[in-house]
Amino acid sequence: MTTTATSNQQQARKAQRRSSLWQVTRGQRLRYAGAIGAMALTGLFLFGAPMIGRYAIDVVQSGDIRDGISLLASFLPHTSSEQAGVSAYLWASAALTLLVTAIAGCFLYLRGRWAAIASEAITQQLRQALYRRLHHVEAKFYDTADTGDLVQRCSSDVETIRVFLAVHVVEIGRAIMLFVTVMPFLFWMDSRLAWLSIMIMPILAAGAYVFFDKVKTLFEAADKAEGRLTATLQENLTGIRVVRAFARQNFETQKFAERNAQFRDRSQRLMVLQSYYWGVTDFFAMGQLGVVLIVGATFMRDGTLTVGALFAFMTYVGMVIWPVRHLGRVLADTGKAVIALGRVNHILREPAELDGHVPMSGRARGHLQLNNLQFNYDPQTPVLENLTLGIAPGETLGIVGPPGCGKTSLIRVLLRLYDYVDGSVTLDGNELRDLDRHWLRSQIGVVFQDPFLYSRTIGSNVAIGRPNADNNDIWKACQDAAIHDAILGFPDGYDEKVGERGATLSGGQRQRLALARTLLKDPPVLILDDSLSAVDTGTEQLILRALRERKGKQTTLIIAHRLSSVRHADRILVLNHGRVEQLGSHEQLSTSDGLYQRLCKIQSKLDDAIDIDLQASKNNLGA
Amino acid sequence: MDEYDDDTFDDGFNDDASAKRVNLSLWKKLFAYARRYPRDLFWLGVCAFVTACMEVAYPLLTRGVVDEVAIKGADANLLPWVIMYLLVTAAIAIAITAFVQIAGKVRTHVSHDIRAAGFDNLQRLSFSYYDHRPVGWLMARMTSDCERLSNILAWGFLDLIWGSTMMLGIALAMLVMNPKLALVVLCVIPLLAWVSAKFQRRILKSARVVRATNSRITASYNEAIMGVLTSKSFVREDSNQKDFGALTGRMQSASVLNLTQAAIYLPLVITLASLVMGMTLAIGGFDVLNGLVTAGTLVAFMAYARHFFEPVEQLGSWFAEMQMAQASAERILSLIEAEPEIADSAEVQSAIAAQQVISETRSNVAADGGEAQIEHIELRNLSFAYDPAKPVLDDINLSVKRGETIAIVGPTGGGKSTLVNLICRFYEPTRGTVFINHVDYRTRSLNWLQSSLGMVLQNAHVFSGTIMENIRYGRLEASDAEVIAAAKLAGAHDLVTTMEKGYDTQTGEGGTSLSAGQKQLVSFARAILANPQILIMDEATSSVDTETESRIQAGLGNVLEGRIAFVIAHRLSTIRNAHRILVIAEGKIAEMGSHEELMALNGRYRELYRQQSLQETTFELAT
Question: Is A341 helix (H, G, I), strand (E, B) or coil?
């Protein structure tokens, strides 16, 4: 148990480490740094363009190329007239603008490419981790989890994080870089104007902080409303037959309308908040530009600033303010990403099944021994109590009992889908808890009551039982499960697709297909969990006969409601309220007082009646 | 083998079967949902217009200030400019706040309305509609499609007005200021449009791959969750992970390609813009030198050159999005406009309307003015086929009186469930008629008939919520005592009371926390509570143990009194007490009569009956 505790802790710590957005970027940070660096260089070159424009305007204003960039002017051929000189300077400026922008464009490309590779790599890791975790969490996780909600977390929440990583991480980096690089330019050109242009920043920052907080709350509320809406819709659609059978359309429509309106109103509230943020920040941002323009103009009037410098200033301030204007969107999306990551982490933090330490290999003999086994889903309601039972290799054990007596729970414990609370279960003398789960499960074949089929062909669904099986093995298994003929009846036979778009299989066909794949697996322990309930009696008898032919080769547990399914078992276990009520052969139990005898009496009363009927009708027919 | 090949997953989730042309009539129909908010649309247009005008005005203001100072020097009066700048900024801030709010409102409301219309119609559509459309498909229409289309309708509309105003405004301002320079800027537009079209198409194409792969990833998550117990019991974790890894790998490379294309596109656009800026600078600068153009105009032109491309790009991407989303639009409209194959005729509707006017309620008058009490059901020459070549039912004749219980037996696929579905009018006969009280049931209200039904199906569907709520679904106004009484009749009471929370036990999503038998009992109680005139039991107790079943049988006599009941069962013991038994095989009534009569007939029924009894003894001999 101590090993369990420590590895649980380790897992918790490991999960904790994955919790922040910063942690998610691990492994790709260098690439992100490259992307941000490229973005900074892009910015640097893009600043060049207004600078070139500034000097060009100043040259034009004064008509003297000595007011321009001297380096650029020195490259120009000497011209006779001043006009031709200015003209050459202007064209050179134009070419330089193009060149500088093209170089910036190359860096921009690098930034996009690197950011794409980094964010996609992270997203892929996240997706894989989620998928793995969904397979490895304990089965009890699914008792309370909602499928629609889980899928939403894995798809749209991951997408929110992906967008954040692909766009906003670099965008935030860029805003910071821009600020850091533009500011020296501004101060170098005119420190008075520079101070004026950053005046507004603290206000915007404070506003953004408040907004960030609010948007998170509202987004979470809207997200919840969306989840509820989806769940209501899904329930209505999957239960549409019940809705119709009770003519509850109005009731359902009203319920849906409520959820629909709630989602609408909450999303709208989010938009209203954003609208104020956008309006206010735009007012400040544009006002900021106005201040620079007007004050700059007065400086110009005093002769302390050139027209070109003002132009450059306005362009730079515009550049810095642009990301600030978009900060609202970036922040809103960051808020969403934080929430989304929280929801994804909820799955990733779920503890995985732990593995035992006894290495096992080969095929089990199939000897099961239960000693004082106790199990429950929650401590208040015991499900299995002090269950003691030995099942010999090759034995067939029938299990009967009223609904909710713990039959299915027993199977879950044997598969270690759930952990037993106390007592012991051994397979061939090895405590289940100490065994490798995967090995254990490969030794047990279960056919569930409501079997799940993968959306693949019928053939590959059966082959899941033994991936290396050949067609003959598959056909044999299907024949034993009395499904072979039905499969051949489908248009595509074994290549018919299962699923919503393929063949619609009846409940009985699904059960038989699930049986076939388990028979193909040929496990030392075979469990049928009420898995013939939808199969008609005649077919059931065919299947049971095929199973009897395999008798002795594997330990078999048959849970059933019909006496006909269990009466030929070596022993029959009557389970009631999680305890062994009776255990023995059909002959023993049918003669001793108890639940099984009552079942037999009901059945034999029917049998007698049938006999009498048959007899009577035979006489009639004879007469 | 690639389990995620396109064919396997081409299940209608491919949202982007991009259209070559934009189908205007389709969008007009959808736009009708936005037109429900005419005042909002009007103001949205006004705000977009104002915003665009103000954005066009900024460079003009800059030009004015620069020229004021450049020309008048120290005498320049900046106060009017300050006021104008302030006004423009205030106007833009207000317009932006307003349009974000209004667009948000229109978007959320349109999405809500489309969804509500879809849901309403889904509640009316016949079962045949659901036969070919998986729940997942319908969910996608009602969630992501709605969001996507409402987004286009609200923001696309906004951007259409904003973009065209802005383009027009800038072009106009430039042409008025200086036609020659304006032409320099405008002549680059075709080049930009060409580059945009070329790239947008590529980007859209790769985006389509990304989306399609994404649907597949979602489907895999769904399968992973639904089939987790099966995957665990077959130790499929690693092979599933491998398949999924291939899928996410494909996703990663498709995404990186898509983002890389975008990363090339953006620099190209910027470079083109700088080309325009350079040309403006060179040509315009020379004119400034010659006094043909003022410095302010040059500054304004360079600002315009930067801003002109924004709306071009914006409109281009909306156009592309509309092309992409056209398939979504078609599908959601087809869902909303689909006519239910089975619905009240015009006469029935007017009869219902007329009955509503007569406010007095008479006990034996239904909502459509017909008799409320069902005394008699007659099927005359009833035939049904999904596919004309393969009739499911052929020429069925049957007459049933109130108080009668009809049992239906026969091999799987013989048409038993179809017969019941026809009686319930979930499907309508392809030939022949069903008469209720000697009146064709197509002239009666559908809602009246279906609210007179009670159904218990083999695959009992239970909604999430408490057991109490689930049973009460049968009759919403039932008191707790009535619910409990129904549960007792159904044999569910004892079972429920052994649960820790009794009737307040949560059933989980789709009833996951109940066993199949428990679900059947709950849905049986629900049907009893509905106090139906027609009770349908389709393999209603197949997952219930023999003892519980016999207890139900004992109480069933009382339940069935005064009702018409149809009971489908495999277990013949269940049906011996029926008044009449139908043996349905190959779509026809093979035998009909009481138990005794059919036994005397020495036909199929007797054979079925004999099988049940003899199986047990023959197999005993075999072992």
Answer: helix
Residue A5, Cβ density class (10 Å: 0-12 exposed, 13-18 middle, ≥19 buried):
exposed
Compute the nearest-CA separation of A119 from chain B (Å).
9
- The CATH number for A235's domain is 1.20.1560.10
Burial of A247 (0-12, 13-18, 19+ CB in 10 A): middle
pLDDT tens, residue by residue, A27-54: 888 898 898 888 888 878 887 887 888 8
Residues A527 and A489 in one domain: yes
Q: Where are the domains of chain B?
A: 24-178, 179-292, 371-452+570-616
Nearest to A58 by CA among B496, B288, B76: B288
The residue ranges of chain B whose pLDDT is under 70 are 1-22, 358-363, 413, 571-574, 612-623
Question: Contact B93/A56, CB-based, under 8 Å?
Answer: no
Same domain membership, residue A551 and residue A495? yes
Chain A residues closer than 8 Å to B76 by CB: 297, 301
Q: What is the DSSP string of B212-274?
A: HHHHHHHHHHHHHHHTHHHHHHTT-HHHHHHHHHHHHHHHHHHHHHHHHHHHHHHHHHHHHHH
Rg (alpha carbons) of chain A, rounded to whole number: 37
Chain Cα centroid distance, residue B118: 7
**DSSP string covering B63-109, please?**
HHHHHHHHHHGGG---HHHHHHHHHHHHHHHHHHHHHHHHHHHHHHH
* pLDDT tens profile A450-509: 788 888 889 989 998 888 888 999 999 999 998 998 888 888 888 888 865 445 677 788
Q: With beta carbons under 8 A apart, name residues in chain B contacting A602.
A: 546-547, 550
What fold characterizes domain B24-178?
Answer: ABC transporter transmembrane region fold (1.20.1560)
CA–CA min distance A485, chain B (Å): 13
**B44 and B158 in contact (C-beta within 8 Å)?**
yes
3-state secondary structure of A586: helix
Name the helix (H) or strand (E) containing A403.
none
Q: Which residue in A322, A196, A60, A191 sits closest to B66, CA to CA? A: A60
Task: Determine the residue type at A422.
Answer: D
Q: How many CB pairs under 8 A join A and B?
A: 514
Cβ–Cβ under 8 Å, residues A388 and A371: yes
- By the CB < 8 Å criterion, does A39 face chain B? no
Chain A, residues 356-385, CB within 8 A of chain B, namely: 378, 380-381
Q: Write the class of the CATH domain B371-452+570-616.
A: alpha beta
Q: Output the pLDDT for position A254.
A: 92
Same domain, A289 and A159: yes
End-of-domain residue from the set A348, A381, A415:
A348
- Rounded-to-integer distance, Cα B415 and Cα B413, Å: 5
With a cut of 0.90, is the ipTM above it? no
Residues, chain A: 623
A96 neighbourhood in chain B, CB within 8 Å:
278
- Domain residues for A218? 116-348
Please state the domain count of chain A: 3
- DSSP codes joined into one string, B126-188: -HHHHHTS-HHHHHHIIIIIHHHHHHIIIIIHHHHHHHHHHHHHHHHHHHHH-HHHHHHHHTT
Contacts of B550 in chain A (CB under 8 A): 602
